[in-house]
Each structure stands twice: as structure tokens, then as C-alpha cells.
Specification:
434 Repressor (Amino-terminal Domain); 126 residues; DNA binding; 70% helix; Helix-turn-helix transcriptional regulator; Lambda_DNA-bd_dom_sf; globular; mainly alpha; DNA-binding
């Protein structure tokens, strides 16, 4: 029974933000996404604003179109080990979302940039 208390709810607004961030990162309009899914542009807007959910079938098709995992769309990549601070989680998602459109080479470059940045901060605090 304790496990049930630890389960998290889906944050519809954050889910919508993740979808929108990726849609924009791949230069797709709401109407283009809607056409591929067989729904209206208004429905996509409602999902992105966190006002409506979607069926499992729509979610599955969206994962393929946006090249995102269902896990990421529903809860974000860091949902299991989150900090408990919604602002930190929002910032992490804003950083991670656009990176999903990058190539392997671009991701490796960003990895080095992040490593140098963090090492500079940690090294500066000592």
C-alpha cells in the first residue's frame, strides 16, 4: 500500500511542453503534426497546453513522428530520479528537449561542452 503513495501523476502541462518543444525542434507546425496523426490542429494545441490527454494509439503514433519515447513524453527522462523541485525539472526538460533533434556528433559536442562547463563551476568553488 505504501508503493501507491509514491506513484506520481502525469503533469499534463509538462507533457504538452515536451511535445511542443520537440515539434518545434523538428520544424513541424501543429497542423502538420495533426495531419500525420489524423486529428485537428486544435486538438494538438489542447494537448500542448495540457488541457486534453490522448489515446494510447495517438501517443504511440506521436512517439514515432516526434522520435521520442512514450516515457519521455509522459514523464520526462528524469522523472524517476527527479530532484523534487518542479523548477529544476522544468529547466532540465528545457535543456534536454531540443537535444533530441541532434545528431550523434552534435550530442557528443554538447556532452563535452556540458562537461567543461560543470568542471569549470565545480573547479571554481574549491
Amino acid at each position: 500500500m505504501e508503493t501507491a503513495n509514491k506513484l506520481k501523476e502525469i503533469d499534463m502541462k509538462m507533457m504538452g511542453r515536451r511535445i511542443r518543444t520537440q515539434r518545434e525542434a523538428i520544424h513541424m507546425t501543429r497542423n502538420q503534426l495533426a495531419a500525420k496523426l489524423g486529428v485537428s490542429g486544435k486538438f494538438i494545441a489542447d494537448i500542448e497546453y495540457g488541457d486534453k490527454g490522448m489515446s494510447i494509439q495517438t501517443l504511440y503514433r506521436m512517439t514515432q513522428i516526434l522520435n521520442l519515447s512514450a516515457d519521455y513524453i509522459l514523464a520526462g527522462e528524469h522523472a524517476i530520479s527527479d530532484s523534487g523541485d518542479p523548477e529544476i525539472e522544468r529547466v532540465k526538460e528545457n535543456i534536454m528537449g531540443p537535444l533530441s533533434a541532434c545528431s550523434l556528433e552534435q550530442l557528443k559536442c554538447m556532452e563535452q561542452i556540458a562537461r567543461y562547463y560543470v568542471e569549470g563551476i565545480v573547479g571554481g568553488e574549491e
